[in-house]
Amino acid sequence: MAAEFDLTPPEVQEPTFFDNVLRYGLFLAAIFQIVCILSILLPSKSPEPEWEQSELKPSDITKKQKPTTPSTGKKAKKESKKKR
Q: What is the pTM of this model?
């Protein structure tokens, strides 16, 4: 029952150029992902939220309202078609 164990360290190959490129590329991708997640989670420093900026003020509504004219081309086209 006396078994001898091999306690020598296993042979590890030196990393190749491709291994180094892959390792550093993964680190850069992880840092990029962390930056993207933080940009979503951190509040923006704009003075007014975007949904408030898009709303029109009452004075702007009266200036931007224009009467719309119905397009006569569509009506004429519909009338000229034969009914089946």
A: 0.42
